[in-house]
Amino acid sequence: MSGKIKVKFVNGQEDNFDFEPQGEPAMFAKQLRELLTSNALVLQLDGEIEIIPLSNIQSLTVIPAREKILETVALQGAITAKRSS
Q1: Residue 12 sits in a domain of what CATH number?
Q2: Which pick of 9, 34, 47, 78 has the fewest CB atoms within 10 Å?
Q3: CA pair distance 53, 75, nearest whole angstrom
């Protein structure tokens, strides 16, 4: 099963990156925890490395969400609600 990381930048731009699962869910969880304590998202793309400072990122969305991937998830099973203007 392939996954996707959606990066929303502070300037409003969005980038999507597709990836194939790499290792067990526990390894993926460890990599996410390390990302949260680092200062950059480092991606190996086709023949190049892209380094994105976390200060430039407004939000990250990782799809699919794996069960119990992070102990710090505060709310599970939430859905996106429409916001009123």
Answers
A1: 2.30.30
A2: 47
A3: 26
Count of domains for the chain: 1
Q: Which tokens belong to 35?
A: 């990302």
Is there a domain that residue 77 lies in? no
Residue 60 · residue 19 · CB < 8 Å: no
Order of all β-strands in the sheet with 14-19: 14-19, 3-9, 57-63
Q: What is the pLDDT of residues 35-80, one digit of tens each?
A: 888 999 998 888 899 999 999 999 988 887 665 555 555 555 656 6
Residue 69 burial (10 A CB sphere; 0-12, 13-18, 19+): middle
Q: Quick check: 1 and 63 in contact, CB under 8 A?
A: no
